[in-house]
Design brief:
Strand order of the largest sheet: 4-3-2-1-5
Number of domains: 7
Strand content: 5-15%
Radius of gyration: 39 Å
Number of strands: 19
Shape: flat
Length: 746
């Protein structure tokens, strides 16, 4: 059984060789040894403090492997705590108040102070290399203890915590945020808490007051829930006392009357408000942790890349280039899009492309970080988006220890923060020095010749000559179709044989020496120097931020102006209702601004940083066509085109509204003229009373005029049935209507 560095080994079925869960730090196959360290939360030894971490311990590799194969031990990849996966920006946004933000800054300062002490000891080396010879570090530890005025056991404790936490910088954060046991109710006191009353101080009463018993807090919270605009806090308090702290008496008339218990035998209104807010009104505040942003120096590597690289994961080359292909929009083949930028990462040892990112954004640290995340994660999900089914481990990847990049593209605060958190390095080559990154430049050339320059709409990497058809007019493919072929081309390249890269024992074993097989063979035989990491934590640092707002219905993305909402997309999940920002928006029916993590090429979901880790939130509004291949750039461009179309038709809409007003006014003026002409022919101008009489007869005359056949048929049927209208009844009805109108005029 192969033991993987950074994995957790815990007890399985039967008697276990280990006490509690332990992390794999180092493996020595020739020496039949493995070094494990207990996790802090698993320590339950009497006399040992919970925050203290024991030193790594050596075990026989064969014994541990046999126990895992027999099921006595279980090896699994346990993700890091969610609070370790927060960036500084996300950490600041989650701060509930200014005082809490200052407390978090002090925790980060303590973490940095601890790291400054142990960095000269463990900062530039792997646990795999240090743990077997940790006894040789005694002099360095003593020197650091003397220089920083810290005890030697304290430094050992910090180093052990760093290793037990997966070599994560945030594992050095102090646990002061758990002081006071936040989120847990204190045990019920046997005496009344708070300030003593004036009556008790004056000696007028014998007891301090009512002491809350078990269940009283929940009763007070139920009563506090009654508070609303029509019911004050005092009224809710009285209702609660009437329900739980009162007696029922019957007076001399037989009526029942509720009487509250004496003041010393029931809670006060202050206690009512306190427990009501604690258990009902105020949700628990989440404790978030982040990381401090500070720079690290880069390591200068002399000689060529092949001279220094002997294992996979030791060095990766990253670079960006244009795809040289005009594409069309997913929404319309007539809408032409410019060539995208492609960022790829090539493993120097195996020459396999391990990560990529394609988009219309300019090359920057944001696109490079997304390529780094792609290189470290499984490619099955992204391949499935474009209709390609990959087998397990068909396209492996890892987080490299060192990246060679162009001078300028990757320099940013976000990259420096990720570099600090995951402890990888970035070396910037000289400008106009393509030979310094020869492998990734060769990969660009291969991709252009094998795919880009064979597609319709290609520029062939040069400007159009006189007489040639513009490549934009020849564009046919869209983003979905291009990505499908690019992934297939990358898979084909990884399956090409490179015998000079394959180790001898791999050739003797009869394994085809393809790039992917070389990568997997070296990885499985411990010829690797990559950095173990949590994908959720890496995702939090690599995915770009996007401004959004949260409402009761869910999360809405914002346009580039940060004001308008992106129509057609709404993100929601049941877990979002437990977020304090959603609760605030739902309670106040308002909009709360926040920042989410978003892959601009995949609008099917977004990621929201929370104290429990990154929360995946699905798109619940968009139609299926908006989730299949359409990118954020496509949809934003579509909205902007719709805005232009509406602006161009504004004159027609305004003219139509004006025509409507004029037409209605002309009709009203014509009707008024005809009415005045008819009134002029009358011998006497009718009064307002006469104009309102005979409405029923007028209605009957109008109906007969509009449809005389139906009117006469109805009258004949009525006469045939012997129904006749009495003249007196008609006059009585008219008099009643006249009386009604006279009353309304008065």
């Amino acid at each position: 059984m192969t033991l993987l560095l950074g994995y957790i080994i815990r007890a399985g079925v039967g008697e276990s060789l280990l006490s509690g869960a332990q992390r794999v730090l180092a493996v020595s196959v020739p020496g039949d040894a493995v070094w494990l360290i207990c996790l802090p939360r698993e320590l339950a030894i009497e006399g040992v403090k919970k925050h203290h971490v024991l030193a790594p311990r050596r075990y026989r590799l064969s014994a541990i492997s046999d126990a895992i194969e027999q099921g006595m031990l279980v090896m699994e990849d346990v993700p890091l705590p969610g609070i370790w996966q927060m960036t500084d920006t996300d950490y600041a946004q989650e701060a509930a108040s200014e005082s809490e933000r200052k407390l978090r800054e002090r925790r980060l300062q303590k973490r940095d102070a601890r790291w400054n002490v142990i960095e000269p000891i463990v900062g530039t080396q792997r646990a795999q290399d240090i743990v077997p010879v940790v006894y040789l570090l005694r002099r360095e530890i003593e020197a650091q203890a003397k220089a920083h005025h810290v005890s030697i056991p304290t430094i050992y404790s910090w180093i052990h915590r760093f290793w037990a936490g997966g070599s994560c910088l945030n594992s050095l954060l102090p646990n002061t945020n758990y002081c006071g046991n936040p989120g847990k109710r204190k045990k019920q006191s046997v005496r009344r808490l708070g300030r003593k009353s004036r009556l008790f101080k004056a000696g007028l009463i014998a007891t301090e007051g009512y002491v809350l018993k078990s269940g009283d807090g929940e009763r007070l919270a139920c009563g506090y829930a009654l508070v609303k605009p029509s019911l004050t806090v005092h009224d809710a308090y009285l209702h609660t006392m009437d329900a739980f702290w009162s007696t029922t008496n019957q007076n001399e008339h037989g009526y029942l009357r509720r009487e509250m218990l004496p003041e010393l035998q029931r809670p006060t209104q202050v206690q009512f408000e306190y427990w009501g807010r604690q258990l009902y009104g105020d949700p628990l505040r989440r404790q978030l942790m982040g990381s401090d942003r500070w720079a690290t120096s880069t390591l200068a590597v002399a000689g060529s890349a092949q001279d220094q690289v002997h294992v996979i994961g030791q060095m990766g080359m990253i670079d960006s280039t244009s795809t040289d292909v005009y594409l069309t929009s997913v929404l319309s083949r007539l809408k032409v899009l410019p060539p995208m930028h492609r960022t790829i990462i090539v493993d120097v040892r195996s020459t396999m492309m391990v990560g990529f990112y394609l988009g219309w954004e300019d090359p920057s640290s944001a696109t490079s970080l997304q390529a780094i995340f792609c290189a470290a994660s499984d490619k099955r999900e992204i391949a499935a988006r474009f209709g390609i089914d990959l087998e397990d481990d068909e396209w492996p990847g890892m987080l490299h220890r060192l990246y060679l990049a162009d001078n300028g593209e990757m320099k940013s605060a976000a990259l420096m923060e990720a570099e600090r958190q995951f402890r990888f390095g970035v070396e910037y080559v000289r400008a106009y020095s393509g030979q310094s990154k020869s492998q990734v430049e060769n990969q660009h050339h291969t991709d252009h010749k094998a795919l880009d320059h064979k597609l319709p709409g290609t520029t062939r990497g040069r400007q159009r000559k006189r007489g040639e058809t513009p490549p934009s007019k020849l564009a046919l493919w869209n983003y979905q179709e291009y990505m499908h072929e690019f992934i297939l081309a990358a898979l084909h390249h990884s399956k090409q044989e490179v015998p000079d890269r394959a180790p001898t024992d791999m050739k003797l074993a009869g394994v085809p020496p393809t790039r992917a097989n070389v990568f997997r063979w070296l990885r499985d035989h411990h010829a690797r120097a990559d950095i173990p990491c949590s994908l959720d934590q890496l995702r939090a640092f690599t995915l770009p931020d996007r401004c959004a707002v949260i409402r009761r219905e869910g999360i809405y993305l914002l346009m580039d102006d940060g004001i308008r909402q992106l129509s057609g997309h709404r993100y929601f999940t049941e877990a979002l209702t437990r977020d304090v920002r959603w609760q605030k928006a739902a309670a106040s029916h308002s909009v709360v601004k926040l920042t989410v993590k978003l892959d601009a090429q995949d609008l099917s979901h977004i990621w929201l940083p929370t104290a429990a880790g990154l929360l995946r939130i699905a798109n619940v509004q968009a139609e299926q066509i908006l989730l299949e291949g359409i990118t954020l750039t496509d949809w934003v461009q579509h909205i902007e085109d719709e805005d232009l179309r509406k602006d161009q038709g504004r004159d027609a809409r305004d003219q139509g509204d004006l025509d409507t007003l004029n037409r209605r006014g002309q009709t009203s003026r014509k009707a008024a003229t005809e009415k005045r002409a008819e009134e002029a022919q009358l011998p006497k101008k009718p009064s307002r009373k006469n104009q309102a009489t005979g409405l029923r007869q007028n209605k009957a005359d109008e109906m007969a005029h509009m449809n005389p056949s139906v009117f006469h048929k109805t009258n004949e049927t009525a006469l045939h049935e012997g129904v006749s209208l009495s003249q007196e009844a008609a006059e009585a009805a008219n008099r009643a209507m006249d009386t009604f109108h006279e009353g309304s005029e008065r």
